[in-house]
Design a protein that fits this description.
Blueprint: H1 5-21, E1 31-36, E2 41-44, E3 60-63, H2 79-88, E4 94-98, H3 101-109, H4 118-124, H5 139-149, E5 154-157, E6 161-166, H6 169-190, H7 204-213
Helix pairs in contact: 1-6, 2-5, 3-6, 4-7
Length: 217
Amino acid sequence: MNISISEMKNQICWASKEIYQRGLVNVGEGNISLRVKNRNEMIITPSGNNYLNPLPTNMVHITFEGKVITEGEKPSSEYNLHRIIYEQRSRVNCVIHTHSTYSSILAVQRKALPMIFEEMMVFLGGGVPCSEYALTGTEQLGKNALKAMGKQNAVILANHGSIIVGRSVKHCVFGAQLVEKMAKIYVKSISIGEVFEIPEENLSNLMNRFQEEFSTI
């Protein structure tokens, strides 16, 4: 079902508040976008997004080529990161980039997040790999993220945070929360001792659910 540009901007405002209230971003960092259906366009948060009081009029309507359709705010400098994902994954309708603490701990260590809980298979498609490093704001950052993500719905960005993709804004917000929760459990667990990953071959039923309900491939 198609929704209006106005409603899409409202959804991004909602998502902005959600990820801020849950500690996944600070004011001015990270970004959120929604694909405009059947067009090579997106709605994206502005540069330095105010998560405390996001307004629909602050959200930026922009083409994949970088042409700003709405007047006013400057689009996030990471719009190319979002564009590359949309161009290569037709089922992605939302992208969220966070600088959440525990995901960022893994990012600076350039470590993947293994599949330690079954829900990671259902909603993310497995563990969360880590991409190769690329400078923020560059197309290479998006290319590296997409390559590392594989068939999953999330990726750790080396020295940068994380990216979550989803079929809807609600899927993405939940995915962002899940990645940070799992990263927190993992980081704290490895400080105590050995961590055991769930073998993927034991989770075929959960993989089927992922492919039916949440996969963006």
